[in-house]
Amino acid sequence: MQSVLLNGKTITPSKVVCIGRNYVEHITELNNEVPTEPVIFVKPNSAIAADIKTHAVDAIHYEAEISFIVENNQFIGVGIGLDLTKREVQSVLKSKSLPWERSKAFDASAVFSEFVSFEHQVDSLSLILSINDQVIQQANYELMIYKPSQIVQAINEFMSFETNDILMTGTPKGVGKVNQGDKFTGQIFDQGKLLLTQTWTVL
Fold it and tell me: What is the pLDDT of residue 25?
């Protein structure tokens, strides 16, 4: 089973619950419709990874997201998540109204930083992703269509969070292709104060 770190302690999520189309400008850049309810999909434990990797056949796209560790439907830690996507595969699946697993739930498709506790409320958190020292994505509570508490409520209507499961809250505009050798730097801020930073070099 794959694991992540929470305040330096190893934990093993049973799954990663993801939200799609939660930022208006990201919806626009992919020419999707604005959803009337949260778009929810799941990545298995086997998708969790510490490294960003390219694929020998399929182009991989990054989607940076504010991500949470969940316990009793409460957020006990925050981290940087990268929802890696086989975009061309996803487009074919969408065109055929088929599920997204082949494009979203493959091994090493959910890359995470360490998770840490945070002092204030969820609405004080923000994320910046830089690639090769250029700011590419910025995410925060205000830009989310569905807020984290609404997302948890929607998920609980049909599925339970196990202790230490991960919630990914959606990606803002600025998604793109992963290239070998790229340097990714993610930062989480709490009320504007740097809380966490993580750097990856794409393998």
Answer: 77
Of 104, 139, 100, the C-alpha closest to 122 is: 139
> Which parts of the chain register pLDDT below 50?
none
User: Which distant-in-sequence residues (6+ apart) come within 8 Å of 45 by Cβ?
Assistant: 1, 2, 12, 13, 14, 15, 16
Rounded distance between C-alpha atoms, residue 188 and residue 203, angstroms: 23
pLDDT given at position 11: 98
For residue 119, the 8-state DSSP code is: S
Q: From the centroid of its chain, how far is CA 109?
A: 10
The model's pTM:
0.94
CB contact set of 157 (below 8 Å; sequence gap of 6+): none
Helix (H, G, I), strand (E, B) or coil at 85: strand
> Which residues does 140 contact at the CB level (< 8 Å), separation at least 6?
66, 125, 126, 127
CA 31 to chain centre: 20
Query: How open is the CA angle 147-150-152, to the nearest 5 degrees?
Result: 110
